[in-house]
Amino acid sequence: LNPLFQAMESEVSAAFDSGEAEDILSRAFKLTVTREDICTLQPLGWLNDRIMNFYMGLLVERSKKQGYPAVYAFNTFFYSKLSSASHKGVKKWTKGVDIFEHDIILVPIHLRTHWTLLVVDLRDKTIKYFDSLGQKGDHICRTILKYLEEESRERRNIELTASEWTLHSMGTEEIPQQNNGNDCGVFVCKFADFISRDKPIIFTPEHMPYFRRKMVWEIIHQQLL
């Protein structure tokens, strides 16, 4: 793998240091990623919506391969819209899609200055909230469960039984925690990466610099390593 990572390092450095901010470095999932977007993956950078949504697109694309759980990912603007306008306000977001045909639903959430992740596992009827600062999101879990109830009723004419679902905010002893004020977006992406492969979350804050550079390469090549 060494030649690959040497090539990756060269490309990452070029992505950060060469060209103009508006240069387009990748285009997919109805998104255009510029050098300015990519530079949010530099050390101490705050990941923006475009990077988050592009990476979620890569996870969904990978999930179509044999051996992976079927993944659906909502846009980063979904939860704020749902919070302000209820199910009616996001009704069109799933037009032509039955989210209940998937195994895992990813909901990246932006809370003003902080990224978190909510994960619905339809296989075992769980809703889990992942926050790399250890804050609880029980109310967010309840909001999403209510959304699922209404979506199921609207799209499938099937009533969900709320009592069958388990809602849980992951504790600081269950998932790794960030040790600075800017890695939350990377944590969310890697939580989603590991979960969408049914892998235990075993990374640490020390992996973040490597993950940032790896994500640059993956986004440019539209391919997950």
From TrEMBL:
Pfam family, one: Peptidase_C48
Keyword Transport belongs to the record: no
GO cellular component assignments: nucleus
Key word Transferase present: no
UniProt-listed GO biological process terms: protein desumoylation; proteolysis; regulation of macromolecule metabolic process; regulation of primary metabolic process
Membrane-spanning residues: none
Ranges where the Ubiquitin-like protease family profile domain occurs: 31-195
Keywords, in A-Z order: Hydrolase, Protease, Thiol protease
Gene Ontology molecular function, alphabetical: deSUMOylase activity
Family stated for the protein in its record: Belongs to the peptidase C48 family.
Protein name: SENP2 protease
Organism the protein comes from: Illadopsis cleaveri
Gene name of the record: Senp2
